[in-house]
Amino acid sequence: MRDLALEPLAGLEVRDIRIGRNGGTLLNVPHLMLDGPGPTLILGPNGAGKSLLLRCLHGLIAPDVGQVLQDGMPLGARQKAQQAMVFQQPVLLRRSVAGNLDFVLRRQGLNRTARRARIETLLQEGGLTAKARQSARSLSGGEAQRLAILRALATGPEILFLDEPTSALDPAATQTIERMVLHASAQGVRIVMVTHDIGQARRLAADVVMMQGGRVVEHGPASEVLDTPRSQAAQLYLAGGLII
Length: 244
Ligand SMILES: Nc1ncnc2c1ncn2[C@@H]1O[C@H](COP(=O)(O)OP(=O)(O)OP(=O)(O)O)[C@@H](O)[C@H]1O
Prior knowledge:
alpha/beta; 6-stranded mixed beta sheet; 36% helix
């Protein structure tokens, strides 16, 4: 486990990334630094470029120009191996709940005894102990998302990206996942999460990135961005105005 007193969270920096398609700009971020304690919540209307930014940060998409740096180093295999991502629709293997976790732990080279112990801890963290032998495909939406998060955490990431992980879930399931996210954050994992839910941003975020039209229109402490937004785009979005 990371010693939080000695070791700061892994930092992310965006340097002038741009993505264009068919003559239009999908993403244009001159600079963005995520080096605070987090969690960072990315907010904005549909099509604002939130998922694209997340995918760039995770190295799933290479920008046309520009760079993403992790702790000052360009994203390479080593940096990507320190990151994990959870999608809106959890992607699970056709195995048991425990089998899904065992799969990633095996790839990390853990022996059988170590894997068992780690699986037990993870299942407890996610409240899935009773479902260990059940097929992952038979889980409810909230349970499946919990397992997806546990599997992402099983790799021991320094950075966890989450793309609207609770958008299809009810308040109770959302609350469980928010607790898991905050727990991971407290353990020293940098959290970068996309949401449409302003309440969720208030509950979780240390800092908020507000996006519109492929651009970051505001980034700052959650209280500042959510309570006293400077940009008109953020003011409208937070007031529930229709941004078309
Ligand atoms: N591979 C691609 N090719 C072309 N256009 C794309 C591609 N991926 C995303 N886009 C476009 O880029 C824009 C931003 O998409 P993105 O998925 O990042 O939005 P978002 O803010 O996450 O929206 P939502 O809240 O609806 O998920 C959209 O107009 C989308 O259609």
